[in-house]
Design a protein that fits this description.
The protein is mainly α. The protein has 15 helices and 2 strands. The chain has a two-stranded antiparallel ribbon with strand order 1-2. β1 and β2 form a beta hairpin. The protein is globular, with a radius of gyration of 22 Å.
Length: 354
């Protein structure tokens, strides 16, 4: 049930934000979704660290006889409840209302959102929607060229690469990763807190730059930066010695270098692919098939997330941390060429001109 809810929210939120935001600040407002995600990660890491520290370990009894790890899960109830209550006060997307033949309601929503010419905007939206039917999945097929619309493949590629660079391995398996690198449970959990803070800081940088520099330059910077930092991690982990139990021994300069490279990698991701992928998926598709294309791209993003999550323990056991990070380095390098050749800039364009 949690997965269904998060999956739905991750698709609907970027579409909704892009459809109500003015084009001049759409990138910044759409990036707020990623800011909310990384804030959630940070407070999850922080609460996990505090619960485990207060109880001694995550498996020890805590309040009312329940174990600390159970309280880690229950802490999620607070932001989920706030999110639910907030949804009761937001207006419907004007573009959805136009597609549902509720043009007058759409005009009212545009007035509420402060649009200077709501009636003109409604007419513009109507021009971009096919007459005769509401947007549907079949609109992803272009009857003129008799193929799936090429822009959909670009969206799928963006969604897949965001996960194939291995970012969620750092967050989902952060404690496992750093313990495999020789840190204690307490230090590994604290490293997660540091990584979460870096992720938040980099997202603020992205929010400041996305509508000034554009989407494509940030993606290229992120891909290049992740290639170098992931490559450095792969070399450090691959060349480090093992202890008597077969675990990595990172000491002195190697441990410090790994921590610096890991957080630099998180910064490169947080200032680029983290928020910008969602920004672009929310705005790069035409009105007629935006919802359908975003749904398909989001599905690919979560499937890639699932694949990376499930394969990391296998890669760790078979090839070690060095081998796993070598694979993520390869994907980061390929993403450079993908962005340069196939991704177009969307900065400042109204959605009706996509």
């Amino acid at each position: 049930m949690g997965g269904l809810a998060v999956g739905a929210a991750s698709i609907v939120c970027p579409a909704y934000i892009s459809e109500i935001a003015p084009s001049a600040v759409r990138g910044r407002l759409s990036s707020l979704q990623q800011l909310a995600i990384v804030l959630g990660l940070f407070f999850a890491f922080l609460s996990n660290y505090l619960f485990a520290g207060a109880a001694g370990t995550a498996g020890n009894p805590f309040w009312f006889g329940f174990q600390a790890w159970q309280w880690m899960f229950w802490a999620e109830i607070i932001p989920a409840a706030v999110f639910f209550l907030g949804l009761l006060f937001i207006p419907e997307s004007p573009r959805y209302l136009v597609a549902a033949n509720r043009a007058e309601t759409a005009r009212t929503v545009l007035e509420r959102l402060g649009h200077p010419h709501p009636s003109k905007k409604v007419r513009k939206i109507q021009e971009t929607l096919r007459t005769g039917h509401k947007p549907r999945m079949i609109d992803l097929y272009d009857p003129v060229i008799k193929k799936i619309r090429p822009i959909l493949w670009v969206g799928i590629g963006l969604a897949a690469f965001q996960q194939l660079v291995g970012i969620n391995v750092v967050f989902y398996y952060g404690e496992v990763l750093w313990r495999a690198a020789g840190l204690s449970e307490s230090n590994a959990l604290f490293q997660n807190v540091i990584s979460g803070a870096v992720n938040i800081g980099s997202t603020f940088v992205a929010i400041a730059l996305v509508d000034k520099l554009g989407r494509k330059p940030l993606l290229i910077f992120g891909s290049v930066g992740m290639t170098f930092t992931l490559g450095a991690l792969a070399c450090i982990f691959g060349s480090s010695a093992l202890d008597a139990n077969g675990k990595l021994e990172l000491t002195g300069s190697a441990a410090l270098s790994a921590l610096i490279a890991a957080n630099a990698y998180i910064f490169c991701f947080g200032v680029s692919w983290g928020p910008v992928m969602w920004v672009m998926l929310g705005e790069m598709f035409q009105n007629q098939f935006r919802g359908a294309a975003l749904s398909v791209s989001g599905f690919v993003q979560w499937m890639s997330n699932f694949a990376i999550t499930m394969t990391f323990p296998i890669l760790l056991a078979a090839f070690g941390l060095g081998g796993a990070y070598g694979l993520y380095t390869l994907f980061a390098a390929v993403s450079i060429f993908f962005v340069v050749r196939l991704v177009g800039e969307t900065k400042g364009k109204p959605l009706e001109e996509m």
